[in-house]
Amino acid sequence: MPAAAYRFSLGPWNIGRGADPFGPVVRPAVSFDDVLKTAVELGFEGIQFHDDDAVPDLENLSPSKIVAEAEAMKRKLDGLGLVAEFVAPRLWEHPSGIDGGYTSNDPAARKWAIERSKRSVDVAMALGCDLIVLWPAREGTAVRESKNPVTASAQLIEAINAILAANPKARIAIEPKPNEPVDHAFIPTIGHALALGSRSADPARVGVLIETAHAILAGLDPSDEMGFALAAGKLWGVHLNDQNGLKFDQDKVFGAANLRSAFDQVRVLEQGGYAATGRFVGFDVKAQRTQKAEAATAHLATSKAVFLRLVEKARSFPETTAAQCIAARDYEALERLVLEHLLGG
Ligand code: GLO
Ligand code: MG
Description:
By secondary structure, the chain is of the alpha/beta class. Helices cover about 45% and strands about 10% of the residues. The protein has helices spanning about 30-40, 50-55, 65-80, 105-125, 150-165, 190-200, 210-215, 220-230, 260-270, 300-315, 320-325, 330-345; strands at about 5-10, 45-50, 85-90, 130-135, 140, 170-175, 185, 205-210, 235-240, 280-285.
């Protein structure tokens, strides 16, 4: 039987202008149409959307106009053979989200965040997808005493329930990250995300999206995080990338910092039958600031190529020999086996 094939996705923010907190942009903006063209050229079938990627300026549009624009975007995707993977409400870039959305200390901001999230559900449905990704970017604190975590947990559940109630088809994938832009996020790990979902009004419609770098920033092994979510049937998306230790969120090319960890992530996706679920493999990777505009999509192509090479490595891993090492409790031999396999020996 042929091994299940993976489907790949990218977000428009992955083709960026190269700015960082210390300097201005270094490349011209890439139009949304060119992002879609790149996706087709690189063999990416899925597009990940922030709500305002799909419908720019949606804050100033009526709900019906928002839906009409999202429907136009859907026709554009259809014409190119692309599909929308998810829509994420981009709460963290709006002035009302300055102190977080759902957990803001300002009740008007909390109300705004929920209303905007409902519009994201409308956008998703019009794009033909039912998945809402919640990256709770500013749902946390820089000054720990500024918010009450007991209240914040209740507020997060209230927001999740409002999104679930907005449309009975809507599903939510929480994408946890422990820090940046906040110091301490309220939902730092997959365990927190799954626990929160289980307390919602409809736990069957709440899952997770795991990003490699976010797990590493939490001091956790990304493949173990993925395995935990897979075992619960809750891994509804991945953002594969890489991260060199505990520093700012680097969004490096998949495998660039730790090829063995990348192998382990691919292997767990294979072990958990992820490809057969039809869910996407997304790469949340950034082009390096030094990269010239004409080659500023190479990070996506490389991530996908590395992923596919590692699928081959996972499928050709000498499982029988590994099982013998494990049975003999000879983990040094297992270590050698893994390293030799990765080195191509
Ligand atoms: C940032 C996040 C971000 C999200 C995206 C979708 O650290 O990884 O890129 O994945 O906004 O919600
Ligand atoms: Mg991400």
